[in-house]
Amino acid sequence: MEVKNKYVSIKANINGAPEESDFEIKVENLSLTVEPESKVVVVKNLFVSIDPYQINRMKSQSSSQTSISYATAITPGEVIDTYGVGRVLVSHRPDFKKGDLVAGLLTWGEYTVVKEGSLLNKLDPSLAFPLSYHVGVFGFSGLAAYGGFFEVCKPKPGEKVFVSAASGSIGHLVGQYAKSLGCYVVGSDGSQEKVNFLKETLGFDDAFNYKQETDLKSALKRCFPQGIDVYFDNVGGKMLEAAVANMNSFSRVTICGVISEYTNASTRAASDVKDIVYKRIRIQGFLAADFMPVYADFLSKTVEYLQDGKLKTMEDISQGVDSIPSAFIGLFNGDNIGKKIVKVADE
Ligand SMILES: NC(=O)c1ccc[n+]([C@@H]2O[C@H](COP(=O)([O-])OP(=O)(O)OC[C@H]3O[C@@H](n4cnc5c(N)ncnc54)[C@H](OP(=O)(O)O)[C@@H]3O)[C@@H](O)[C@H]2O)c1
Question: Coiled coil located at which positions (predicted)?
Fold first, then answer.
């Protein structure tokens, strides 16, 4: 038996800001016949993740492409892999049965042929949360927020924490983890609606719209008159420079990502390194996959916080494979609040 598989690909490498014309929606015939001895699992995709790092995979060249297997270059015309949630359609493996709900490396398309060795886990049906949570708050966004904040920043109650892209998928979780620890938390983002969301819905102590500030160093000085102890950086560029100028002695900066630099390398941060030396600032990058050893702790604490109402997770869900290019482009225009997800099919 065959099905039509609709999927998204890039027409050519993208080296600047992505545009609709860079993408095409393709349709292929996909066989659902799997030999009995094959370890391949065919999955019907339900929810797929939309993430900024994919832009670095779409470039003709980026140092990130040789760092880790899931960041490898995307070939124009081919299917694009991504984290997602789906339902098993065909499997002869004893560990996956038809109808099982799974999370793993799927595709920006309607179906995924998951090869042996590729990331695929059965979902725990006892977790009574929406399926989409397994793409966001229980997926790599949540793990990056938890691990990057607790494991890398080593925060203490009462410390002053700054988060950029604070209304985004990772940022909105980091700020709430920090509040739950008893930190003073300020977020930056790109609109008044988002500023209100951080303060009124998520309980951030303060927030500002970076697009309306003429001097980011002064904006941070205003929000942190006694300096910043922890900066969770999602954007890099000028914001990183301004944060370093406002960091306290023995403070920590964790670099989760540098989205402001992805589509324009000329905006690279040039922080004052003297500040890093004399204030003994520790700056560390990470990849979410580094925190797989603490996944069980992360999941149990996050489930507990969600159940207690200490943590709210926001999702921004678009419908259908055709919406994937605009959903992705929207990340670079600040269109999303919370985790950007595309719902590909009904559960
Ligand atoms: N290290 C890891 O393992 C890991 C894992 C996942 C993601 N990341 C990184 O973490 C960061 C956040 O990812 P996410 O998935 O949570 O995305 P996200 O924050 O949900 O979405 C991106 C947001 O970034 C902001 N933005 C876009 N262009 C910007 C610019 N030029 N300057 C400042 N802000 C800009 C926009 O919000 P505004 O309205 O605020 O502009 C946009 O909504 C990204 O840098 C991503 O690459 C790292």
Answer: none
Cβ–Cβ < 8 Å for 205, 182: no
Per-residue pLDDT tens for 17-71? Answer: 999 999 999 999 999 999 999 999 999 999 999 999 999 999 999 999 999 888 9
CA of 189 to the centre of ligand 1 (A): 10
Torsion of CA 230, 235, 238, 240, to 10 degrees: 20
CB 326 within 8 A of CB 20: yes
Residue nearest to atom 18 of ligand 1 (CA): 168
Residue nearest to atom 37 of ligand 1 (CA): 334
Is there a single domain that holds both residue 160 and residue 113? Answer: no
Structurally, how many domains does the chain consist of? 2
Q: What is the pLDDT of residues 176-209, one digit of tens each?
A: 999 999 999 999 999 999 999 999 999 999 999 9
Do residue 227 and residue 163 come from a single domain? yes
pLDDT for res 126: 82
* Pocket-testing residue among 48, 67, 146, 170, ligand 1, by greatest number of atoms within 8 A of Cβ: 170
171: CATH: 3.40.50.720
The residue whose CA has the least distance to atom 32 of ligand 1 is: 260
Q: Do 253 and 285 belong together in one domain?
A: yes
Residues 277 and 144 in one domain: yes
pLDDT band of 1, cuts 50, 70, 90 = confident
Residues spanned by the domain of 168: 140-289
Instruction: Kindly report the CATH number assigned to the domain that includes residue 338.
Output: 3.90.180.10
Both structure tokens of 197: 């969301």
Nearest-5° Cα angle at 310, 305 to 311: 75
- What digits encode the pLDDT tens for the residues 203-243? 999 999 999 999 999 999 999 999 999 999 999 999 999 99
Shortest-distance Cα residue to atom 42 of ligand 1? 334
Residue 124 has pLDDT above 90, yes or no: no
Name the residue with tokens 């042929």.
113
Closest CA to 181 of 301, 296, 293, 291: 301
| Residue 306 belongs to some domain of the structure | no
Q: Give yes or no: residues 26 and 120 share one domain.
A: yes
Locate tokens 């600047």: which residue?
16
Atom of ligand 1 nearest to the CA of 290: 3
* pLDDT (0 to 100) of residue 303: 96
* Residues flanking ligand 1, CB < 6 Å: 51-53, 140-141, 144, 165, 167-171, 189-191, 194, 234-235, 256-260, 286-288, 331-332, 334, 336, 340
* Distance from residue 170's CA to the centre of ligand 1 (Å): 8
Q: Are residues 157 and 270 in the same domain?
A: yes
Residue 132 falls within a domain, yes or no? yes
